[in-house]
Every structure is written in structure tokens, then in C-alpha cells.
Amino acid sequence: MAQIIDGRKISAQIKDEVKEQVAALRRQGREVALAVIQVGQDPASTVYVGNKKKACEYVGIRSLSYELPQETTQDELLALIDGLNERADVNGILVQLPLPGQIDESAVIGRISPLKDVDGFHPANVGALCIGRPGFVSCTPAGIIQLLKRSGVEIEGKECLVIGRSNIVGKPMALLLLRENGTVTVAHSRTRNLKEIASRADILVAAVGRPRMITADYVKEGAVVIDVGIHRNEGGKLCGDVDFDSVSPRCSAITPVPGGVGPMTIAMLMKNCVESVALQDAGSLRG
Ligand code: GUN
Questions:
Q1: Strand order across the 62-68 sheet
Q2: CATH classification of 139-263 is 3.40.50.720, yes or no?
Q3: For residue range 80-108, what is the model confidence (pLDDT) as tens digits?
């Protein structure tokens, strides 16, 4: 029977480690603060933002909340970011995505100081990851590396397949697995023979965005399967990109949905916030 990789347990461990680090910084007279910006009232975003603020409270990070109206202009948002970039008492800046149509997301991401970009979305941080320099790494893929390492899964030399090539998950995931000396393939919607490619993978990361698409016939016996998807099925129950019931008997380890990758994103955001203090002390991404 497959090992179930418990994201709730591992994310709780990470949050407790961050809590200790925040307390140690406080003993040196330093506070850690995260500015969280939400534009409009998308219900899913409101839930995510609320969970981020709760996590801040748990680990002892001060959160500054900016709830802006749906009709906020791009210039207004950029002006807020400029102000937060300048403030020495703000370590991290997070703009919840998606943004309303009148605002260009890449202009907004590009305006956040790379030293405060705790989401790891700024091109300077993506570039730093690509060439192995210090910087912030996107939270979901960084969390997946923690799930693998803390579950005793070796990455070095393994055939790793990432299905999905988004800027937030697929691409940084591939770079992180490469950094860990995996042999990495990236598959996507135009990939031919996906089943054949997938059935060679020792570590399979599914970030496809299609409910239960990855069935047992995609998975090699003994593979480790990481499911990034989160969907509601016909009955209203949560499910992932992986058909857990058919896949789990074939693999050596698997993340469930819910309770796998999901809880890791916020834990890694907290970890990035605490690490931002050292990056800001260094004063640049050059390390
Ligand atoms: N929207 C969905 N996921 C994320 C995330 O990780 N960060 C931000 N800022 N917005 C999101």
C-alpha cells in the first residue's frame, strides 16, 4: 500500500519552525511583517487571503491588510506597491491573483521589489531560480520539494515528470527538481504520447487542471505521485488531477486531495516571509 504523504502534518511542522524563527528575530528586536493586497471580492480569493492572515497570526508575523475596491485603477495599485516597497517595516508584499481585467498582472508583479516578492513571481526571482542564485521561490513547487524531502523521497538521478507548464507551478517545479539533480521532463497540453512518457516517471507531478485525468495507466509501478490539482467533483467532493483510487495501489507514495499539496503553499509563504529579512539585510538578490 502506498505511503500517504501528509501535507497537513508537514505544513504544520514548517509553520512551527517558522514560528521559532520569528520568535528568535523578535528577541533581536526585529518584527516580520507581510502586506496582503486584495482587489475586489472574488470569494475564493477572500478565503485564500483569510487563510494567509490566519497563518501569519499563528507564526507571529504581523499582517497588514489592504482590501481595495473592484474598480481600483492600475495606477492606484502601483502607487500602493511603491509605498510598501519603500517602507522598512514591511518585509513581504503579496498581491492576491487574479486581478480585475483593467489591471495588468505582469505590470503589478514587476513593480513589487524583488526583495519583498514573497510569492516568487517577479522576473528577477524567476531568473535567480533559473541560474541557481538566492531569491524567492514560488510557494507551491517549493512546498512540493519539502513534501518529497521530508517523506524520504530521493530526487537525485530520478526520472521526474511535471505535467503542466504554468509560471506559478509547472516551470518553477521543473527548475527545482533539476536543482535537486532529477532528470526532468515537462509535459503539457500539446505533448504527444503522454501515457508512454508518464509511465517512465519515478516522480510524477500532476498540475494539469483536469479532474482525475491521471489514471493508473499513466503511472509506473512504485512511482511517487504528487497531485497539485484541486477540483470539486459532481457530488461536491474535493478531488485532484489524479484518480486517487485507481493510482494509489500502484505507487509507493502519493499526496491526497485535500490534505496534500494544498496546505504547503501557505506554510512556504510564511517561510519566505521570514527568509525575506535576511535577503533584505543582504540588500540585493546577489549572493
Ligand atoms: N492566486 C492563486 N494562487 C496564488 C498565489 O500563490 N499567490 C497569489 N498572490 N495569488 C494567488
A1: 62-68, 33-39, 92-95
A2: yes
A3: 999 999 999 999 999 999 999 999 999 99
